[in-house]
Amino acid sequence: MSNCNHDCSSCDVREGCDEIQSNKAKLNSRSHIKKVIGILSGKGGVGKSYITSLIAVELRKRGLNVGILDADVTGPSIPKMFGLKEKATGEDNLIYPLISKTGIKIMSANCLLEHEEDPIIWRGPLLGNLVKQFYEDVLWEELDYLLIDMPPGTGDVALTIFQMLPVDELIIVTSPQDLVSLIVTKAIKMAEMMNIHILGVVENMSYLTCPDCGKKIPLFGESHLEKFSQDLHFDILGKLPLVSENTSLVDQGRVEDVNLKEIEKVIQKIMR
């Protein structure tokens, strides 16, 4: 378009835009992915990467081939959750993903750094291009599901990823706080603008179960997600508890040992 201001989020003709279409990621000839699902949170600190990992683990338990693309480039945590410390290798212009103990394929910026504590201090376009390369140049081979752990928020990097990568569906992760309505609304509107189907919302850290009486204790206040879901017409995929034993397992790089029955509804929705 001659009058293009390069702000694709406000464009009415972005579906036919040559600039966007020419920059779409193209999977390498040795890989095939049936479905790509993005996991997004409107803000950091709600357990987006944790939920991404749990979904991958549960899908893998069902015999499905699963990969995780860690698109949270400046705050990558997926390799640590799976206890992976080795670095990615490759040949013939392809990158080999790391493989977890149960067979989940993982690609993250931390797989490329000499020291995992080193920061990546890049601007948005470079971050977006790295994520695109992870999709195009990683030898994913045959995957039933590729889960994309999105960067938190609805800013430039997330927008770039949605434009470049063929995201089929989106799961939004949130927590039971008063700020949830604003945050989830922003994420939902962004998905709608990009024409991405929203599977639903997962509320993490929804409650703590008392070890003595079994009562559910809302540590962060009562959830208003049901009313909010009626107003914005989205599905609640699950309300997950805060479990200290699971937190400890994740810190030890043992997320594949976590058992959380409340994730079942999320998996059923994905596999419907």
Number of strands: 12
Computed structural class = alpha/beta
**Helix proportion range:** 25-40%
Record the strand order, biggest sheet.
5-6-2-7-1-8-9-12
CATH structural class: Alpha Beta
Q: What does the overall shape look like? A: globular
CATH topology call: Rossmann fold
Low-pLDDT regions? none
Number of separate structural domains: 1
List the helices and strands in order.
HEHEHEEEEHEHEHEEEHEHH
Q: Can you give the mean pLDDT?
A: 86
Please describe what this structure looks like:
The protein is α/β, with parallel strands linked by helices and 272 residues long. It has one domain (27-270): P-loop containing nucleotide triphosphate hydrolases (Rossmann fold, 3-Layer(aba) Sandwich), CATH 3.40.50.300. The chain is 31% helix and 20% strand. The protein has helices spanning 18-22, 48-61, 78-81, 124-137, 156-164, 180-193, 225-232, 244-251, 264-270, and strands at residues 32-41, 66-70, 89-91, 94-96, 98-99, 105-107, 142-149, 169-174, 197-203, 208-209, 216-217, 236-239. The strands form three sheets. The chain has an eight-stranded mixed sheet, with helices on both faces. Strands 3-4 form a two-stranded antiparallel ribbon. Helix 4 packs parallel to helix 5 (156-164). The protein is globular.
Topology at a glance:
Blueprint: H1 18-22, E1 32-41, H2 48-61, E2 66-70, H3 78-81, E3 89-91, E4 94-96, E5 98-99, E6 105-107, H4 124-137, E7 142-149, H5 156-164, E8 169-174, H6 180-193, E9 197-203, E10 208-209, E11 216-217, H7 225-232, E12 236-239, H8 244-251, H9 264-270
Parallel strand pairs: 1-7, 1-8, 2-6, 2-7, 8-9, 9-12
Antiparallel strand pairs: 3-4, 5-6, 10-11
Helix pairs in contact: 4-5
